[in-house]
């Protein structure tokens, strides 16, 4: 983690103190300068996973920036003199960087979700961001370890300016860190279920829910199967108030 002077530690994870606008500007400049950059977008669930998963924790610690993808992370720092100012979500970084990349004719590689979703995502990008150069794409499912390695090799060879990996945690973070030492440039970000929302397969919470930081509640209401993941939110809350 390089930006120690601007980080706030939450349960051992150093979050970068920034706004979305500042983060997009910083990442855009790093792409222009051809600096290799790894970004983790972490919510309370990922923080709790990292406490019990050494591989994930080590992957997160290799990131150049960790952003607060969850209002619970921001709330956990509000007692500090200089807390995190706002959420900086993976979906918003994805959308804004596509816009920036379209203006600059950057190259792009996508990995994640199902075949159906990744194909829809590619089509939306082709329609809405015609100046982006798609170097390659693949679902987040691999039949063999050889296929997984082949995709990583293809990502490395592509030298893409933007690499978005939407496989969920810890898979996306580990997938990225396994390639880092062989990359000289490129911005690599794990963005969870962003392809599903971006492609229209899953509906994002209405703006009013977003405004009041209730996206998590909307997802539970519309996808009841996610309710089991609430246990990590509860564990996170208990862990932060015990500090």
From TrEMBL:
<keyword id="KW-0328">Glycosyltransferase</keyword>
<dbReference type="GO" id="GO:0016758">
    <property type="term" value="F:hexosyltransferase activity"/>
</dbReference>
<dbReference type="InterPro" id="IPR004629">
    <property type="entry name" value="WecG_TagA_CpsF"/>
</dbReference>
<keyword id="KW-0808">Transferase</keyword>
<protein>
    <submittedName>
        <fullName>Putative N-acetylmannosaminyltransferase</fullName>
    </submittedName>
</protein>
<dbReference type="Pfam" id="PF03808">
    <property type="entry name" value="Glyco_tran_WecG"/>
</dbReference>
